[in-house]
C-alpha cells in the first residue's frame, strides 16, 4: 500500500516541493500540506503502517530518513539533522523510536 492512495496527488506534490531543499523539512507543515493532519485516526494508523517498513511497530531513525519516499519514490532522503529533529519531535517517551500513538499525536498537533 502507498500513502498516495489515500491522499490528494496535488497535495503530495505541493508538500514535497515545499521541502525540496535540504534543511527545509518541517513535519508540522508537511503533515498539514499533504493532508495527513486532517485524516481520521484510522487513516493515520494506516500511514504509520506504511512508514514502518520493517513492521516492528515502531518508526526508527532509518525509516524516518526515508520518510518522504513513502509519498513519492523520487523524493529526497532527509538530512541527518532533519531526521534527528523529526525523531525528537515524535519520540515522547525517549526510547529512540516512534510508536503508533506517538506518531498520531505528532500528526495531529
Summed up, the helix count is: 6
Query: Which shape, going by the Cα principal axes?
Result: globular
Strand content: under 5%
Order of helices and strands: HHHEHHEH
Which percent bin holds the helix content? 40-55%
Instruction: Supply the helix-strand structural class.
Output: mainly alpha
Tell me the count of domains. Answer: 1
Distance between the termini: 25 Å
Mean pLDDT: 94
Q: From the 3D structure, determine the CATH topology.
A: Recoverin, domain 1
**Rg on CA atoms, Å:** 12 Å
CATH class membership: Mainly Alpha
Number of strands: 2
CATH superfamily: EF-hand
Characterize this entry briefly.
By secondary structure, the chain is mainly α. The protein is built from six helices and two strands. The chain has a two-stranded antiparallel ribbon.
List its salient traits.
109 residues, Recoverin, domain 1, two-stranded antiparallel ribbon, globular
List the helices and strands and how they pair.
Layout: H1 9-18, H2 27-34, H3 41-51, E1 58-59, H4 61-65, H5 80-90, E2 98-99, H6 100-108
Antiparallel strand pairs: 1-2
Helix pairs in contact: 1-2, 3-6
Amino acid at each position: 500500500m502507498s500513502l498516495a492512495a489515500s491522499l490528494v496527488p496535488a497535495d503530495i506534490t505541493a508538500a514535497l516541493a515545499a521541502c525540496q531543499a535540504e534543511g527545509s523539512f518541517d513535519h508540522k507543515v508537511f503533515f498539514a500540506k499533504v493532508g495527513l493532519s486532517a485524516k481520521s485516526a484510522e487513516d493515520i494508523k494506516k500511514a504509520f503502517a506504511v512508514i514502518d517498513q520493517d513492521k516492528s511497530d515502531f518508526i526508527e531513525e532509518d525509516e524516518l530518513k526515508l520518510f518522504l519516499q513513502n509519498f513519492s519514490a523520487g523524493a529526497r532522503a532527509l538530512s541527518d539533522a532533519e531526521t534527528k529533529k523529526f525523531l525528537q519531535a515524535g519520540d515522547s517517551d525517549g526510547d529512540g523510536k516512534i510508536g503508533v500513538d506517538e506518531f498520531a499525536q505528532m500528526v495531529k498537533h
